[in-house]
Amino acid sequence: MAGSAPWRRLRGRRSECGVLDQVIAGAREGRGQVLVLRGEPGVGKSALVEYLVERASGCRVLRAVGVESEMELAFAGLHQLCVPLMGRLDRIPGPQRDALSVAFGLSAGTAPDRFLVGLAVLSLLAEAAEERPLVCVVDDAQWLDRVSAQTLAFVARRLLAEGVALVFAARTPGPGADGDPFGGLREIAVRGLRDDDARALLESVAPGRLDERVRDRIVAETRGNPLALLELTRGLSAAELAGGFGRPDVRPLAGQIEQAYLQRIGALPAAAQRLLLAAAAEPMGDAPLLRRVAERLDLGPDAAGAAEAAGLIEFGTRVRFRHPLVRSAAYRAADPTVRRDVHRALAEATDPAFDSDRRAWHRAHAAVDPDEALAGELERSAGRAQARGGIAAAAAFLRRAAELTPDPALRGTRAGAAAQAAFDAGSPEAALELLDAARLGPLDEVQHARMARLRAQVAFARRRGGEALPLLLDAAGRLARAGDASAREAYLDALGSAVFAGRLGRRTGVREVAEAARTAPLGVLPARPTDLLLDGLAAWFLDGCAEGGPLLRSALGAFRQAAVRESGDAMRWLWLTWLVAGELWDDEAWHWMTEQAVRSAREAGALNVLPLALGYRAALAVHTGDFDLAAALIDEADTIAEVTGQSPMAYPALLLTAWRGEDARAAEVIRGAARDATTWGEGRAIGQEHYLVAVLHNGLGRYQDALAHAERAVAHEDLAVHGFALAELVEAAARADAPERAAAALRRLEDRAGAAGTDWALGVLARSRALLDDGPGAERLYREALARLERGRSAVHLARTHLVYGEWLRRENRRGDARGHLRTAHELLRGFGAKAFAERARRELLATGETVRPRPADAGAPGREALTAQEGQIARRAADGLTNSEIGAELFISPRTVEWHLGKVFTKLDVKSRNRLRAALADA
């Protein structure tokens, strides 16, 4: 290293240092900064981190380091980073403060949603940055515990207008690695030094004369890896460096570097090696704790001196290794007996009142033989971890508890609990491995059945239909035969799987599952909402709409009442109750269901279910004709899904695409999404695809195409698709001059609409009957349809009824009457953004002699159209009187980011205060 210019302080790192300087500058200017440094071990990531810290004068620096042995302890990495800010907890909103306190074990409470914890961390960092810029660095991020990594990735994706820089240093993922939580963040690849820089660095540390051929060989073999250049030459003699007589090492470079450290560690006195091992097993860098451990291991002060003199570690207010590879080398090289002794000393030195779980973890690593007392302590630690939201940590504690359990039956029970926790934590492979271990114990019939259900749920999580269905059905049968109370919910899972499998369900369909479900033990009294739902679905599929409809309506009512008291069941079964409400054409149920789900998810910070709730709310907004709101909700759902690593929900966006009818490629987009879904065994997506394409073609006036797709859609009774598709089929067949096909579809629609009994269902039915009535009864039916649909929320179907009524009136040569309905249809449909249907209305209006003038908005009026989806969401909430903090809590961004967006909203809408927002949005 030479020179004084900032970029020359690290040899060969001019561009990387330049990027880091920009990161610091951005944070100082109040702009959130995120960067991931990627590279192989020893390539210089840690050196760049140190450069960043040194350059961050005037900023507050927070640091954390991932530790391989701590990967299963929830929030361990996050705790390292946030501990210095704990005095500021009272400055963030109460729900966020409570969530973070529970996560860190500072207070008791129900398990917080991990993304509410993420919002709390975002608020905490943003609050600290108000005082001075904040620089957060996380080294060895690939070894962070999962929940810490996910939380920090969430925070990173939400930084915008905060003076916070968040920088991760992580190894390049190897082939077959699990999902990368930092994927998609801004990153730079840290590669080896160029040959001239590598030669210069090598010559600066090599003793004596360096043979050019040897130098070039070392540079080539190390690929310019700085740590390899510095460390591997330490083991070569001057003669070897001069003449090149050393043995080339063919091991991977990281292994060679670690081996070099192992050699240096092996040359230390035994006491210094033990002290290094203790420091490696204690990730917090707690110097007082390490001194207590040294006393217990009878290690004198010379041990620390020898380790420091070797350049491997620094002992100060915190303990820091020279490089993460030193830590891993010190830990892995230790004799297992010595390693257990060190963990035992760490457990004894850890205050059980302050950190009982870490103490139990060290005790578990010190144990060799089964120990029921210790297994019980680990089980209690698992309970505490689960209460804090650390499900992955709970799985790790339970796994080790099972290994240490002497009683075979109890061992199987704990392994089963560990499997459930692993599945809940998103580790299906680990869950299956633990299920295999649980099966080795003497389980009773109920336990075997529960294990079978969990194995089936793993399969369902991977593929909603297909292979999961027979497994779920078998598990439900086992639970039923064992008389277990969970059998009914297991059958409900199986029915849901059959619904999604649809026409790809092979030999087992909804009827077969419904028949099996009727063998389940009777539920408790009074009946739970899930009991009513199971009975209603079984009756719907086996006995028909007339029998099943009332039961399903009762089930939805029970879920609504239960949601007032506690939202858990309503949220758990939202994916199925939504479909039931759609099958019953119950727009009121859709309204309260989605309103409650979105509100509950926002209040709880439940980002794992919020995208689903927002997606369903968006689908309702399409039916109510608020396409702008639907687009904003879809955008929010997709953003949260991306942040949380979930797959976005495709249906709402496809529904909006079909109704808009403006994209020339819309049909192909819809078909492509269906192909993707069917690869996961979701046959229901096939019916959904054909229904949406039928809507698209009816809007475009391509009635033969609409008829063909609608008939394919109704070939299978897909829940919440079949009835809608029948209505499209009747209209398409009527317009395509296929009365027999239309009449057959109408008869089927009559059964479903009659069973539903809602104004929406009966209004669409009256419209469909009118389409096939050539006599005077048609007008009465059209008027009935309008009257019923005006009482409901489905504005798009109301507008389409005006459209077909106007078309009928024109064909009856009642042009004056036709114009009124066609004009209403055109204005409504154009206002919604349903361009294909609006164009169809415009053509009909022109045929009546009406002149259709474009609205000012069609010419590109300024105002709300200029707002992005997120700006629109913020503007609407600000207009409703929410504060920046309240808006930020709902949208999972910081108050400073809300303020930044509002500044842009004020500029675009040409307003100077919140008081004018409501009027400006209305004018737009």
Q: In short, what is this structure?
A:
Helix content is 65%, strand content 4%. With 924 residues, the protein is mainly alpha-helical. Helix 3 crosses helix 6.
Give a description of the structure:
The longest helix is centred in the middle third of the chain and has 21 residues, at 545-565. 65% of the residues lie in helices and 4% in strands. The chain has a 5-stranded parallel β-sheet, sandwiched between helices. The radius of gyration is 33 Å and the shape is globular. It starts with 13 loop residues before the first helix and ends with a helix. Strand 3 (134-139), helix 6 and strand 4 (164-171) form a beta-alpha-beta unit. By secondary structure, it is mainly α.
Keywords, please?
two-stranded antiparallel sheet, 47 helices, five-stranded parallel sheet, single chain, globular, 65% helix
Structural category is mainly alpha
Q: Count all strands and give the number.
A: 7
Strand content: under 5%
Q: What integer is the average pLDDT?
A: 86
Radius of gyration: 33 Å
**Straight-line N-to-C gap:** 60 Å
How are the strands of the biggest sheet laid out side by side?
2-3-4-1-5
Number of DSSP helices?
47
What sort of overall outline do the alpha carbons produce when their principal axes are compared?
globular
**Poorly predicted residue ranges:** 1-8, 239-251, 856-865
